[in-house]
Amino acid sequence: MQKFYVFLIRPNLWFGHYIVCLFGLLLFPVLLKAENAVVPGQLTVEPPTLLNLGFDWSINGDNNRNATVQVAFRKTGTNIWLDALPLLRIGGERVIRETEFLDYTVPNGFAGSILDLEPGTEYECRLTMLDPDGVQGTAVQVVKVRTRIEPKAATVGRVLHVYPPDWKGPKQEPSFLGLKAAYYGSGLGDWSVVSERKVQPGDIILVHAGLYKADRLNYVEPHGIPFDGTYVLTAKGTADKPIVIRGAGDGAAIFDGAGAHQLFDVMATAYHIFENLTIRNTDVAFAAGQKEVLGATDLTVRNCRIEDVGIALTTEYAGSKNFYIADNIILGRDDRHYLVGWANPGLYAPTPLKSYFAVKVYGSGHVICHNAVAYFHDAITVSTYGTPDSAQKAVAIDIYNNDIHLMVDDFIEADGGVHNIRVMRNRGVNAAQCGLSAQPIFGGPAYFIRNVLYHIPNGCALKFMSKPAGLIVYHNTFISENVNPQTFSNAHFRNNLFLGTDAPQRPLIIFPNATAYSTSDYNGYRPNRASADQFRWVSPAKEQLRDYNITVKDALAFPNITSLTKASGLEAHSVELDYSIFKNLQAPDPAKPHGIYHATDFSFQLKPKSKAVDAGLKLPNINANYKGNAPDLGALEAGEPVPVYGPRGNQDQPFYR
To answer: Which residue ranges traverse the bilayer (predicted)?
Structure first.
């Protein structure tokens, strides 16, 4: 009886197990499809800038990463939709730097920009999410966003006239001796902190010609900034009524810091405009923000000459927003006649940090454009910062049309950026360490578009280190090798020119991909004649999406594009070419790494019918106005005018001479 009992139970157990397994097999495709289907989350419209709009759309699902987001836009009130680049699929990439305990995983979503719009214009933007596995939720988002305009003075405020204390001529009224008297109504010595008559929103302070230089060791010096020599400004303007501090136009209005560490502390201000001033002889010209403490918002510095400084402007406060830094000449203290670096003593002797950087920002909505920068460690940077805050982070930052000459380290650093960092149409000549940096990017995209770089003797055109994620590199001209030594994630290269300089035993380029979905194609390469291996490639093993343990030591080497393409699938439409594609351009001399070159001595324009012409890929919102049968490679389309680099209206001679 007992045996019979056991025999009866076993078939039941087996049958139940069979039913469960059969049900699981039938359900598995449904579960898998559910995991692969995309679930749209929150769409974030980032702060608009003058030319660009940015978006960040979170998602769940899409485990097989085959969802896409198409982007179209049109001016409000018009009928024709124009295509923009698709949003970049992001998520799952790791940003790692062990020495500072940084280990960040990018959240799942899409992010991207609509580029080169018109200022002060409302656009209708349509984002369409697609997935072969299905979209579970709202698949189409249509939003209206207006680009910003350049900040401008109000027409209803007072005009206050400031003169240097030794002014002898007639004055326009109301008049004040020194800036603080107009800004605060403050006095001297202990009375310098009194602010009973603070400047009002909409006021314009006209600074008349002369030298504003405090004797900061004099207790009652007439500028009202004893001991520290710092103008601490704290008033708040408004969007319609900014506070303007402007050179009056009757001669140079010169603020000389007399060696003070900080000249203008503006980190508590809102809506201030500084323009047409000369600022010199201070470590920090504008202290505009400190991480986790305080920071300015809506700060404008334009048409100024800032020279003999260690830092021109800095904020590392996550809440700083909407700076406009434009058309300035910014000159540091570093060597003007000899290219020197700070690392790799075999090539350069270490150099002291005389000038740190020209401009550094964190936060959102900043525009840094048409500045001329020379003689710093770094020119223009986003703060490295660290793991981004959930609410306030570095997004929607534009760095474009700047002219950069002679850096100890890098031309431009997007380091610390999160989404929609846009580095476009800049020109950089002579960088001792690297050209453009992304060390790191926390998801991206960081756009590097139509930049021209020349003479980077370390062979590091792109410093994509600390495992950055989300890199878009389109239409650049790099007169340098690119031997970036660390892996990066989710990077995409199109329509670039990389021209080697025949540096001995140096490959032309390394592709250190930590993600299998990084891509590169439609580029032009000039191989190094002094190296047997031109291309090196590393990528996760087959069927592996990501691998953060591989290094460039695992790279395979290739003598030409054909062999690289056969092994990797990269560069199927890329070409090899030479310096003959340019109207007037030669390679820098690799035997003279300390030499200095001048942008005005060269032409980076392509010769008609050269091998780089019509060799590119059509990219919506990037090269729609191409000539000929297809876009050209590199930063400059043949037959198109050269962009204006540096301050507008100041193109007669090099700014640094």
So the answer is: 12-32
The verdict on whether omega for the bond into residue 40 sits within 30 degrees of 0, i.e. cis, is: no
Q: How far apart are CA 319 and CA 361, in angstroms?
A: 11
**Separation CA 318–CA 313 (nearest Å):** 15
Looking at domain 38-146, which of 3.40.50.1970, 1.20.120.1760, 1.20.1250.20, 2.60.40.10 is its CATH number?
A: 2.60.40.10
Global pTM reads: 0.94
Q: Which residue has the tokens 């290219």?
A: 339
Q: Map out the domains of the chain as residue ranges.
A: 38-146
- Six token digits for residue 436: 């453009």
Listed in sequence order, the residues at least 6 apart from 457 whose beta carbon sits closer than 8 Å to its beta carbon are: 339, 347, 432, 501, 503, 588, 590, 593
Task: Decide the pairing of beta strands 294-295 and 289-290.
Answer: antiparallel
Q: Who's near 345: CB < 8 A, 6+ residues apart?
A: none
> What is the distance between the alpha carbons of residues 141 and 126, in angstroms, rounded to a whole number?
6
Question: Is the link from the previous residue into 174 a cis peptide, with omega within 30 of 0?
Answer: yes
Residues in the chain, pLDDT under 70: 1-34, 344-349, 651-654, 657
pLDDT single digits (tens) 196-238: 999 999 999 999 999 999 999 999 999 999 999 999 999 999 9
